[in-house]
Amino acid sequence: MVISGRVQGVSFRVSMKDAALRFGVDGWVRNRDDGAVEALVQGEDADVGRLLAWARMGPPGAEVISLDRQKLESCPPQRGFHVIVQGSAR
Questions:
Q1: Which tens digits make up the pLDDT trace of 78-90?
Q2: 27, 20 in Cβ contact below 8 A?
Q3: Which of 6, 33, 37, 38 is most buried, with most CB under 10 Å away?
Q4: Are 68 and 39 in contact (CB under 8 A)?
Q5: What is the pLDDT of residues 11-36, one digit of tens each?
């Protein structure tokens, strides 16, 4: 998914990781050069749905303008949920 708006500089990635872990969703999240946040998420449909609902609002201070979701046909399984910072995962 790609989340646009005021989503960088408001702890969006760390908050999304916390939400993903709470909902039992695997994947990663990272900032994009265009000011958006991008995430890959995997899990049960209901759990992913809860994370999508969270991402449409974001943490306090965020202003989500749009959330574009694309379902991938295949993707390697993810383990845990990671914040990617400049090419590395935390």
A1: 999 999 997 555 6
A2: yes
A3: 37
A4: no
A5: 999 999 999 999 999 999 999 999 99
